Structure formats: C-alpha cells, structure tokens
Amino acid sequence: MPVTPAVFSSLSPLAVPLLLKPRYVAALLPGHREPTPILRLRYQGSADHWAIGIYKASTGQYSETELPGSFGPATGTPEQGVNDTFTLYAGPRTES
Q: Are 52 and 75 contacting, i.e. CB atoms less than 8 angstroms apart?
C-alpha cells in the first residue's frame, strides 16, 4: 500500500505546515515556494522509538551522528524529533 504525503500543522512548534513524506519531514517555511526538508525518521521497532536525522542543507544529506549534545537523544517519537529539530532551526519557544 503506497504512503501518500500528508500535512500535519499541529505537530509544528512554529505553526508552519509540515509535510510528512515516506522518508522525511519537510516544512513549508515563510518565503519558500517549495517544502524544505527538515528531518528524517527511521523506524526502530516501536512507535516510540525512531532514529532522528537532521537535514543538513550544506551537504543535502541527513545526519544522525552530527546532532549537537543539547539536542537530546537521537531517538524518540516523531513528535519529539519535530520539536527538537525545530528548536535547533529556530531556537526555543518564547512565551508571549
């Protein structure tokens, strides 16, 4: 059964639309016409255990080994991966 892309705005801590593809998560960032790859999730045997690889625009590849120590574990739920990756891209949330 083919997996079709889906948009999940509610997962995004920055309230930007996310596009969940079969191999990666992309975001429709302001000022961009096309979705930008953000991270890759690799299933590790359970719904709560996914390997998280951040997209590196400089190389056009994903890396699970080059995550900063402040990122936390390189595995977790898809929601944790999205939240942690957006924190790396945009900084922590601020209360208004």
A: yes
Contacts of 93 (CB under 8 A, 6+ apart): 13, 87
pTM over 0.70: no
Report the domain count for the chain: 1
- pLDDT tens track, the chain, 96 positions: 333 444 444 444 556 677 777 778 888 777 888 888 888 988 888 888 888 888 888 899 988 887 766 666 778 888 888 877 777 766 666 655
Domain that holds residue 24: 6-90
Examine residue 62 and state whether it is found in any structural domain, yes or no: yes
